[in-house]
Structures are given as C-alpha cells and as structure tokens.
Amino acid sequence: MDKKTFYWGASTSAFQVEGGYGEGGKGIATTDVRKIPEGIADSKIASDHYHHLKEDILLMKDLGITLYRFSFNWTRIMGDGYEENQAGINFYNQLIDLCLENGITPFPTLYHFEMPQKYVDDFSGWQSRKCVDLFVKYAEICFRHFGDRVKNWGTINEQLIVSAATDLNGNHEANPDLKMKNMYQMSYHMSLAEKKTIKVFREIVKDGKIGPICSMQVIYPESSSPKDILAARNAQDFLQNCFLDMSVFGQFPTSYSNYLKNKGWYPDYDEEDIKVLKNNRPDFIGINYYCSTCVRALEDGEDNSQLPPFYRNELFTLGNNPYLTKTKWMEFGIDPEGLYIGMRDIYERYGLPMIVTENGLAFSDVLEGGEVHDHYRIDYFEQHINQCTRLITEGYPVWGYCPWSLIDLVSSHQGFKKRYGLIYVDRTDEDVRECRRIPKDSYYWYQRRIKLKD
C-alpha cells in the first residue's frame, strides 16, 4: 500500500456522534423523534462531537490518519429542510478547515440515515418526488459551500438499510403490502436523487469524485442444494445488486424487476427519469463491511414476517453458517475473507475503484484503570487489512481503508452498550458525564500500522 496514493482513515456519522441538539439552528431529524428503548441513549448528545470538535481532530492527527469519513447532518445544513442554515454551514466549514490544517482529507457523505422530519410530516418523505428535488437542493448547497476544498464525496449511505428502517424514513403504513410497495418506491426515489445529484456535482465540483456507500452483502448458500444456491443469487440481487446496478448502470437486475412487477411493488417512474439514471455514473464505490450472510430457500409455510423487510419474500431466508466465530454483537460471525470475496465480486461486476468506508467490530468495551484493552478489535482489524493488502497485490483498485469508528458512538438501538470506536467515550446510556476521550489499545495499534510502508 503506497502511502502517497492510499488513504488510511476512520469513519463516523453525524447523528451518531455530533449531538448539539437544537443548537446552531439544527432542525428536527427523523433520528431525533424515533422511538428509543428505555434506558438507551439517543442522538441528542451522542458523543458530543459538536463540542469536542478541535479535540477530536487533534486525536485524528495524532492517530496519523490521512482521511476522515464523516457525514453532514441534513438538518444542520438546512434547519427545517427548506432553507440553508448559515450556522450549520459555519460548523462544517470549521470541521473541514481543521481537517485540512492537520493534513487530513475530508470525505463527507451527504445522507447517512438522518433526514428532516418536516419532510415526513409534510409529504411522507421519500414516498414523494418532492424529496428528490429537496435532496438535490441540499446537495447543491453542500457542493457550493464546501466543493472548493472537499473533492471526495459519498452520496447515500447503505440504501438497503435506510429504505427499510421505518424509524429513519417515516414509512409507517399499517397495510403490510402497501408498506412494502412504499419501501421500493422510496428506494427508487433515493436512486433518482443520487443520479440527479451526481449531475449537479459534475457542474459544480469539476475536479471531484463521488460515489455511493453500499452495505456490501457477501451471501453464502447454506448448502450446495440448487434451491439454496438460487436463494443466495436472489439475495445478492435484492440486498445489493439492485442498488449498485442502479447507481452504476441506471437499471435494476432483471430478476428483481420481474419479482416487483409480479407483486405489484414496482416503483412508479417518469419516462424522462431513464436518461438521468443512465447518464450519470459514479466515480467509485464505498464499501461498508462487517460480516457475511448465509441464506437458504424458504420452506413451504415458513413464517419470515419477523425478519427485517428486505428479507420478507418467498425467495430466500436467513440460514446459519457454522464455519464462522459468532459473538454477542456479531451474530452472523466474523469473516475477514468475506471482505476479499465481496470486493472482488463488486469490482468484476462494476469496474470502479473502491474504498473501505466502514469495517469494525462491536463489543461492550470496559474501561479498566483508565485503559481499554481491546485485543479482539485489533485482531479483527489486522485480519481485514490483510485482505485489503491481498486485493491491492492482485491488482484491484482499493484506495483507502476506514475503520468504523473513530470514536465510540451511539448505536441505533443499543446506545453505548455496543461500542466500535478506536477511542473510548467515557459516558453511559444514562450518565453523560463529560464524554472524556480515552484512546484504546486499538488506537495505538492502528497508529503503528499506519506508519508501516505497506
């Protein structure tokens, strides 16, 4: 890995680290109003990055990273969702300038789960094409204010998740059939918004690069049965290829399209969309990877209604992979080689450069004597970085690696019981304390790893 062309980074997302609720003109986001289990931290304070900005960037500098992958908080940039908020723009200008002053390349994602609740209240959010236009407006504001200094951009983080998670997008339809149709319509509008955004990006940030951040799905069949093999192929189309095919090629996989049409769930579209979808290709693909997935064919009469929406179909259901080590928070198992398998497949299908934008191990870390000894996370990172080296050695264009996450952050439904950070944030779900930053053993290991030449 050539240090001149390869970025060693770290990642966060705005709603999970920033806090600063109600400060600096920030509006109300879907992540501010979603139901959180009792006794679990919400995002109103999170890791208090909003008030620890300079300290966190100095910790990044000391760590030695050359890229910081973060996200803009849509409701900090646009307040109520309709007009730009100068105070929020000033905050991100400060973040970007501090990164650059400390030799760190800023790499923002436009949409990482959080969106204005006002859109949900006014027109059902992504169910309406109004949301497409407002996303493009938001993106244009970001490009115009930050594009002179920011040259690498992510569009949508994990469209698979944000399309399906009702507490993130406001799809609270009671009729289950209509709710599924809404999900696919919302996802289509996200894809259309991404394509229109890329078109605007080319006009404003002429020397920049932009791409989607996908939740990479490495799908194994539970057995060598042809039914399980077909189930795995179908799962690949439904959980990954439908999003990336649209991002890169401007169309859905045929099998996916046929299924949605047969169910009556195929999204409504305008004929003029087709040209927009086909003509605005991304420059790279961001890869979020934690573990692989095992699936099998759904048996007759089997109930899969309790699974997440993207698993609710007649084509496949979750299986079990006995060959992987499972942990409390990594219930699918730890699979470093899956990173290699998945990224190799993505490159062969799409032919675009790739960057690992998220890769991490969740654990309920314990602070002992002012230190966190997370050897398990070091082992996880080492094995996955070795797979990146393998890809690069074989000629695959991988231009960066970003652990998830730089600091401990609030997890969607587990708060601060589930930690990913290289840096410990000294707070609990119920006691915020001062959110003191304490580098873990993995921080110092990564610091040494970055200093190596390859």
Strand order of the largest sheet: 1-2-3-4-5-7-10-11
Query: What's the CATH class label?
Result: Alpha Beta
By CATH, the superfamily comes out as: Glycosidases
- In CATH, the architecture is Alpha-Beta Barrel
**For the residues shown, what is the average pLDDT?**
96
Question: Which structural class best describes the helix and strand composition?
Answer: alpha/beta
Largest sheet: 8 strands, parallel, barrel
The topology string of helices and strands comes to EHHHEHHEHHEHHHEEHHHEEEHEHEEEH
Number of strands: 13
Mass-distribution shape: globular
Q: Roughly how much helix do the residues carry, as a percent range?
A: 40-55%
Distance between the termini: 4 Å
How does this structure look, described?
With 454 residues, the chain is of the alpha/beta class. It has one domain: Alpha-Beta Barrel (TIM Barrel), CATH 3.20.20. Helices cover 42% and strands 13% of the residues. The chain has 16 helices and 13 strands. The strands form 3 sheets. The protein has an 8-stranded parallel barrel with strand order 1-2-3-4-5-7-10-11, surrounded by 4 helices. Helix 15 links the parallel strand 10 and strand 11. Helix 7 runs parallel beside helix 10, helix 10 crosses helix 13 and helix 14 runs parallel beside helix 15. It is globular, with a radius of gyration of 21 Å. The model has no long low-confidence stretch (mean pLDDT 96).
